[in-house]
Amino acid sequence: MEYNDILSELLIKIEGVQSDRELGELKASVFGKNGIITELMKSLKDLPPEQKPQAGKAVNDLRVAFTAACEEKEKELHRKKIADMIDSESLDLSINKPIGSIGALHPINQIRKKLTDYFIANGYIVYDSPEIETDYYNFQALNIPPDHPARDMQDTFFIGNGMLLRSQTSSGQVRLMEKHKPPLKMICPGRVFRNDDDSTHSPVFHQMEGLVVDKNVTLCDLKGALEGFAKFIFGDKTTIRFRPSYFPFTEPSVEVDVSCFNCGGSGCRVCKNTGWIEILGAGMVNRKVLENCNIDPDEYHGFAFGLGLDRVAMIQYGINDIKLLWENDVRFLKQFR
Ligand code: FA5
Fold it and tell me: Do 285 and 216 fall within a single domain?
């Protein structure tokens, strides 16, 4: 058979190859022990010397052409493999599959976001302050020296080396006033920690500190700010009351209660039969705190408040045990979608 005919035949066979395996088998039938080209090579030695160069060149040309055709086929098979893979693995985004369960913002985060938006709209900035604090920022700069009886109001987790888990976001007041001078209007939301545990008290809970310092700030401004906030979050019908209180870092100090969502004010387990639930402490910033932050208390006055976000969530959603907010039970959480 002519070399050209052999090549044509081989090229037709290559054309028909569908897989790497088939190509491997074809190559073996050409280059293997008894393969066509192997046999042709072997037969060269039996040719008369004058025919050898021409025949040798023809067999080599055949080998080169067949090898090139095989390489081309390999590339083609590889491209096909990739294309098949892309086809079989591609995502059909148009498929209308039923959606599984979807999450929602935790009720405390919903309240935190709602209040943050409210205060930002009223000109407050949002300030972030550390959860792990020094005694100085959590107590001393707030006019609560070591051994002051007011420390007992907040059963604090001390973690050694003079450090503690902040028991109030009021530490953020000092950190802000040390760095920035009045006029100031900020909220500082975050987690706080105390050794507390009952249906309205949790060892970890959330507060939102508020601080306004400027010239001519009065108790009326505080009252207006708190009434505005209470109306926004609980609605016009909710009754709030101001009670005289004591915090070493404010003078005068008040506590603000909201009528109990559970009994409407007649008294129950949730409100400990008082008809009221305390949501925040507040007051006019004590001049000693301003002095500790190098702000002249004769020139500037301020008010501050510390709001319990978990309590607000409880009132807002009628949750009668603070633990529910911490258990992360999906059956409970999915009600807040
Ligand atoms: C304070 O923490 C003061 N730093 C608030 C303050 C700020 C007063 C600025 C004056 C000026 P109090 O301990 O009362 O105050 O806590 C404030 C609010 O946090 C409470 O009204 C209550 O809503 C919430 N709260 C307190 N303890 C807990 C607790 N263990 N679990 C859940 N909420 C709590």
Answer: yes
Probe residue for ligand 1, chosen from 205, 290, 316, 325 as the CB with the greatest number of ligand atoms within 8 Å: 205
What are the b/e assignments for 248-279, b being 16+ CB within 10 Å?
A: bbbeebbbbbbbbbbeeeeebebbeeebbbbb
Among 207, 246, 289, 309, say which to mutate for ligand 1: greatest number of ligand atoms within 8 Å of CB.
207
For the whole model, what pTM was predicted?
Answer: 0.72
Same domain, residue pair 37 and 141: no
Q: Are residues 114 and 66 in the same domain?
A: no
Domain count, the chain: 2
pLDDT tier, 120 (very low <50, low <70, confident <90, very high otherwise): very high
- Given pLDDT bands bounded at 50, 70 and 90, which one contains residue 149? confident
Q: How far apart are alpha carbons 63 and 52 in whole angstroms?
A: 16
Per-residue pLDDT tens digits for 5-19:
998 999 999 999 999
- Are residues 130 and 27 both part of a single domain? no
